[in-house]
Amino acid sequence: MADDLTAQLATATLDSNASVQRAQFSDRVPIKSIILRPDGGSGLAGKLARVGGWVKTGRKADKDAFAFLELNDGSCSGNLQVIVEADKADLGQLVLTGTSLVVDGVLKLPPDGKKQKVELRVEKVIHVGLVDPSKYPLPKTRLPLEFLRDYVHLRPRTNTISAVLRIRDALAYATHTFFHDHGFRYVQTPIITTSDCEGAGEMFQVTTLINEAEKLEKDLIENPSPSEADIEAANLIVKERGSDVAQLKSAKASKQEIGAAVVELQKAKDNVVKLDERSKLQPGIPRKDGKIDYTKDSFGRQAFLTVSGQLQVESYACSLSTVYTFGPTFRAENSHTSRHLAEFWMVEPEIAFAELEDDMNCAEAYVKYLCQSLLDNCSEDMEFMADKIDKSCIDRLTMVAKTPFVRITYTEAVELLTEAVKNGKKFENHVEWGIDLASEHERYLTEVRFQKPVIVYNYPKGIKAFYMRLNDDSKTVAAMDVLVPKGGELIGGSQREERYDVIVSRIKEMGLPLEPYEWYLDLRRYGTVKHCGFGLGFERMVLFATGIDNIRDVIPFPRYPGRADL
């Protein structure tokens, strides 16, 4: 029967009028290719298919004669209704939420009035992955996202998290497509770095000194350091072995005998050296001049997890002209807000022979492209988000994709906020020139004042990083932020400071050491060029697109203070 069914399935696949698409690397038909057809799968009625997935809900019917199962394989948000008769399997096991199934069956049209367009009548159960309902932590009832963070390994089985993953995947694909289509080269920048891009010092340190200190401490307990008496005894042995060699030479012994004695002498000398070195070992982290001696560390100097790939990718922009990096970044900030993670992903393009206006143009085009891509390619998941999470998310994506962004200077933004305060608007954070705009300020500009995305540019130099180009007024830098409704700041970027003397001065102003940035300064010493770039927080883009409130729910494995599961 199974062989006949496989043959019939292969034949069905070749039917060009209503073919059931088989997964290329899996012996099953993805549920997506059945229920997301324009006809909802009804055109496949009568076809045979093998499907696999996990039971979302299940119930027995007609006095336990058969069971209705809602099966999902993660290929889409929707489920395929599967009908299994009692003679095919133990229905009590199949109806449990979380059970995995692989079944062969025939696609049928359901009775009139049913929501689904097609259902699968099971001919044979191929596989059952059992679930103990008393222990399985994800019942079929809707669960709070906060609860699901305790089960990051199982939460992808929920409708919301699986939809988030597919949206995240679509945004990543759109990112690579956008930059590839515009001639950018993808550069993989290092995760371990010796440079602090932001100059804030909130970096995770990478070190083996602690591990080595713990090993040494344990070793010294098990094998104590040699005493002075031990070293003195070893030196006596060296003298004895030296005397043996001298006597053999005096007696004109054979070369073989003298050679053997010399070997023993060398062993004795090596032993003294080892004992002497071991006697100097001290428990704890090595220090020099009262400070930790990082020359003894794995990289011979202090090293950190990167907060940004920008500085490194600049070196490739100054050779290949247009490049970008897309990877994980880290921030050792003890923050528990809904918008902060210890590990997050950044998209960071860098463009040579370009200025701030080019940077803003690229950022606006990129954000518009991401929004349109979701509208074109993720309609099912976005409709789910609009139904369950944020009713305005699709309208918001459409507005951003179609609307020109407003562009105002930082000074103009402060003037608008000050005017709002005079007219009765209350902000928790005081408004004055020189402040870093707070989230409430950003949302006022995008959601109330303009009701569309806003790019704010030319910020005070005191609140921006050292590498941003100093403007002619010597008070502001050529920096820009892209602000969006609901999300606030989505992108931060700038024209980079290409003038050697100016950037050296800026580094010193911020109290940073020059030595770690000597390689970065070389880009200004040798063939300097105007260039610019920006960084998009990938998780913030997912937040903006989905309307989900907490950033911990839009990354597969969230890391934040106190939590680093798996």
Question: Which key phrases capture this entry?
Answer:
five-stranded mixed β-barrel; OB fold (Dihydrolipoamide Acetyltransferase, E2P); eight-stranded mixed β-sheet; BirA Bifunctional Protein, domain 2; 566 residues; disordered N terminus; protein biosynthesis; 17 helices; aa-tRNA-synth_II/BPL/LPL; asparagine--tRNA ligase; alpha+beta
Structural class: alpha+beta
State the total count of DSSP E strands.
18
Proper CATH architecture of the largest domain: 2-Layer Sandwich
The number of helical segments is 17
Termini Cα gap: 43 Å
Quick check: average pLDDT?
92
Per the principal axes of the C-alpha atoms, what is the gross shape?
flat
CA gyration radius, whole angstroms: 33 Å
Strand order of the largest sheet: 6-12-13-18-17-16-15-14
Low-pLDDT residue spans? 1-19
Percentage of residues in helical conformation: 25-40%
Write the CATH fold name of the largest domain.
BirA Bifunctional Protein, domain 2
CATH class of the largest domain: Alpha Beta
| Sheet of most strands | 8 strands, mixed
Family: Belongs to the class-II aminoacyl-tRNA synthetase family.
Organism: Prunus yedoensis var. nudiflora
Domain Aminoacyl-transfer RNA synthetases class-II family profile: 323-556
Keywords: Aminoacyl-tRNA synthetase, ATP-binding, Ligase, Nucleotide-binding, Protein biosynthesis
